[in-house]
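hey can u check if this looks right to u? its 457 residues, i copy pasted from the old doc so theres a chance i mangled smth
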Amino acid sequence: MEEAHQAAGRGGPGGGLRGLGADDAPAARPVALTDIAGDTGEPVPTNVAELDRVLVGGLVPGSITLLGGEPGIGKSTLVLQALAEMAGRGRRGLLVSAEESPTQVRRRAARLDALVPGLWLVAETSMPGIQAAVQEIKPDVLVVDSIQTVWDPDLDSTPGSVVQVRGCAHRLSVMAKADGLTTILVGHVTKEGTLAGPRLLEHLVDTVLSFDGDRHHALRLLRSVKHRFGPTGELGLFEMTGAGLEGVADPGGLFLVDRRCGTPGSVVFPSMEGQRPLLVEIQALVVQTPMVSPRRSATGFDAGRLALLLAVLDRRAGLSLAHHDVYVSAVGGVRISEPGADLAVCMALASAQTGKPVGDDVVVLGEVGLGGEVRQVAHTPRRLAEAARLGFARALVADRGPDEGPLALRRVPTLAHALDQYLGGDRSTLSPLRVVGADPAAAERAAAQAAAHPASG
């Protein structure tokens, strides 16, 4: 039994880390919840405004944060800028570079104007070396770039393996909690966009940040996927420049700068990212194909949701795209996950198919149900106010919603009604094929409804 316990301490089967066995850990004593001080652990600003927005004030002392993103997206730039800002205000920072040489990091720091006193660097990959550097420097903030390249010689596994990533992250987490050391771990992502390494890695940390964007464009988006010290869902926007990452405090019409008005298949959707309204252009392209299985491609939008909306368009609105390749894109590298974009996507698809553009001064929002009904979405007044600020005059919304707003509201109870309102009352123009309804009486009722609500452009 004693031999088995020693093997576990060395990282053997079912074991943990050396020195962290159950027999070595001191027992925790119960404490009354009311006796715990509630005024400690206030977040410390990083002075990178968009990062502080996502972190709801800054980094909490003793917390451990995981920052994930694709290679080359700017993770190392972001943490170096944050460290330099904090060091410039009297907080000692230590950057553990496990991938780049000191010369490479120094060159980046010079480009970012991050050569400040109080910022230390160590090029180290082993856990004992990192711990020794922490004991020597005694930093307030520690950054490890990246966790996938750190290894522990006490663990019987190769660097980068699941055992190594889990074990090193655990030791860093224990050190952060014990010493009150604010720690940031930079992590790689897989080709599917998920963080590389064991899922346990996300459970070990207090905060998980996702840093993404199109490497061919300057825009970068920072989101909090998990945050134990505040709400998630807030969005930080950065622009990659020659001098590093610059925050975009007022994105406004950032995603609409290159929009071509009057283009069929283009619709503007007022999205909500955390507490920030953003106007995003949704584009659709429909191409006839002889293939038995047409292609459905979605960029920045859920492919499963697109398939659902195509089925609703076919069954409830009489617009069949069964013999067409369908492409939908949220412009600017934005990812839209909220169902409030359903109506905008459907309108973009119908516009692309008919060749009739939706009005240039129109924003569209609403959730589409399986029955073809259009449902209202949350924070509609804030979305419409932002649209009005950027010069839009009309909004296509659900039948039930705010009584009034800064825009002229066109209310639609169903998806079929929305298509009639903005793409013409003659449903035969919604080629190909069918008019809503399975019998002549239903078709007559649909025609009468369209005549009673003429198109407004």
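The CA atoms of residues 15 and 264 lie 61 Å apart.
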